[in-house]
Specification:
single chain; six-stranded mixed sheet; 385 residues; two-stranded antiparallel sheet; alpha/beta
């Protein structure tokens, strides 16, 4: 942006409208400078002109080199958040999914959660030459998510697990001296400069063993792609906590247990198969059969609740698990996009069982899990439930 456009808001508004409307605006909104003209060509390649049927057509064609150049251009002219939106539009509007199977094109793409979802949907069709490049793209996104989410998740859940195992009669090596001093400040003796601890606070030996079981049960239908990416990262973080025993299960009309891959979220993601039908009842039956300590188990179902299996069976299993003492959590999504389209009738039926279904952002998920582990009311955000 030049000093002239900053000084003239009216000119800047005309410039922005010219870029929005494209060449269709003719000369009515003035001409563009060289950089803006180049930006306009980049936009026109994707959003194009109206065809005779009223639809807007882009002009990238099917050439991988040309698409790669275009991907480089949009990164030159737009911030990363806009680049990611334009990439998604290119895949949706111009059918570029197959071109993402070419390694040189993948290397030029701005990686994000939605791109990972697209790659996972193409996983079975991916040639071997592209697979390592695709894994590198997916790993970059996963590592960025881990940096953002892991520290807070570990701190929040460790606190919840500590509180659940706290004892007033700890052994000497199990005393939490910071909490003990805070709990006994009223017994401070100024003349001696010391606190007389009438009540010790510490952790029982159970804190060093598995205290809770967590089962993540994830719908791998196409609409749940972003949720699967986030759930795989959280699954790896949960599995790293010694006091938790974590199981991760994905399902469509079949059920796949990916627990053995939890040490590497990328392996988890490439073990999924996006698309296909949905049989929630079968997935819950698998999870229910693996519960050995109901009162110390949290089951998290992540699904849009469109059930292709036995609806009544699904609801009966949820009711049976709750009756046995299981903490059951139903998430319509685990992503930043909010609730997807979901089955409102099934969501209402779960709510009647005391299991409200809601969309959860990655930032809120640690609090939801902490509440479930401590058997507190869940921090449900405002919005559709």
């Amino acid at each position: 942006m030049t000093k002239e456009t900053i000084a003239d808001p009216a000119a800047e508004r005309l410039r922005r409208w010219r870029l929005v409307l494209g060449a269709e605006s003719g000369g009515a909104l003035g001409t563009l400078g060289s950089r803006d003209a180049a930006m306009d060509r980049v936009l026109d390649s994707l959003y194009g002109h109206e065809s005779g049927d009223g639809a807007r057509r882009g002009g990238l064609g099917g050439s991988a080199p040309r698409v790669a150049r275009w991907l480089g251009d949009i990164r030159t002219y737009f911030p990363a958040s806009v680049v990611q939106v334009m990439q998604r539009d290119a895949v949706d509007r111009l059918g570029l999914s197959q071109l993402l199977l070419e390694p040189e094109l993948l290397e030029a793409v701005e990686a994000d959660v939605h791109l990972v979802g697209t790659l996972l949907s193409l996983n079975r069709a991916m040639p071997e030459a592209t697979r390592e490049t695709a894994r590198a793209v997916v790993r970059k996104v996963v590592e960025d998510l881990e940096k953002r989410l892991s520290q807070r998740t570990r701190a929040t859940l460790t606190g919840a697990l500590d509180r659940s195992t706290r004892t007033s009669r700890p052994r000497h090596h199990d005393i939490d001296w910071n909490r003990t001093i805070r709990a006994n400040l009223r017994h401070y003796l100024p003349e001696h400069g010391t606190v007389v601890p009438e009540r010790l606070v510490g952790h029982g030996r159970a804190a060093r063993a598995v205290t809770k079981d967590v089962i993540l049960c994830i719908d791998q239908s196409g609409s749940m792609a972003a949720s699967i990416v986030h759930a795989s990262v959280f699954g790896a973080v949960l599995a790293s906590l010694r006091s938790l025993r974590t199981r991760l299960v994905v399902f469509d009309t079949s059920v796949v247990d990916l627990t053995d891959h939890l040490s590497d979220p990328v392996d988890v993601l490439f073990g999924t198969q996006l698309g296909g039908g949905t049989d929630i009842n079968r997935a819950l039956a698998y999870c229910q059969a693996r519960i050995t300590r109901p009162a110390d188990t949290v089951v998290v179902l992540i699904s849009d609740l469109y059930e292709g299996g036995i609806r009544d069976g699904m609801l009966k299993r949820v009711a049976a698990m709750k009756a046995s003492g299981v903490q059951f959590v139903s998430l319509l999504a685990l992503s930043d996009e909010g609730a997807p389209a979901y089955d409102h009738e099934h969501a209402a039926a779960l709510a009647a069982l005391g299991v409200p279904a809601f969309a959860c952002t990655p930032d809120l998920f640690p609090e939801v899990m902490a509440a479930a582990l401590e058997k507190r009311p869940l921090p449900i955000p405002e919005g559709p439930v």
